[in-house]
Amino acid sequence: MDNIAEIDYSLVNPPVITKTFMDLDFKGEFYNIGRHQEPPFTAGPLSFPEQTNHMMNLAVS
């Protein structure tokens, strides 16, 4: 991102594409450049309520 922080992200599941939606399941992590270490916890799964009237849903934990 800049000379202080980086982001590492990737798809964790295959994309799901239908006539009405596209689901891209990414997992990412921000960390300091030169000091990348695994977090001391495992992030739990996130879930969204079923909604059809939003263009995009985003969750950050």
Sum this structure up briefly.
One of its GO terms (cellular component) is extracellular space. Helix content is 0%, strand content 30%. The chain has 61 residues and is mostly beta strands.
What does this 3D model show about the protein?
- The structure is a single chain.
- By secondary structure, the protein is mainly beta.
- The protein has a domain at 1-38.
- Helix content is 0%, strand content 30%.
- The protein is built from no helices and 4 strands.
- It has strands spanning 5-11, 16-17, 22-23, 26-32.
- The strands form 2 sheets. It has a two-stranded antiparallel sheet. Strands 2-3 form a two-stranded antiparallel ribbon.
- It is elongated and about 45 Å long.
- It starts with a strand and ends in a 29-residue tail after the last strand.
**Uncertain regions spanning at least 5 consecutive residues:** none
End-to-end CA span: 19 Å
The largest pleated sheet is described as:
2 strands, antiparallel
Query: What is the chain-wise order of helices and strands?
Result: EEEE
Q: What Rg is obtained from the alpha carbons, in whole angstroms?
A: 15 Å
How many beta strands in the DSSP annotation? Answer: 4
Q: What are the key terms here?
A:
two-stranded antiparallel sheet; 61 residues; mainly beta; innate immunity; 0% helix; elongated; lipid binding; single chain; two-stranded antiparallel ribbon
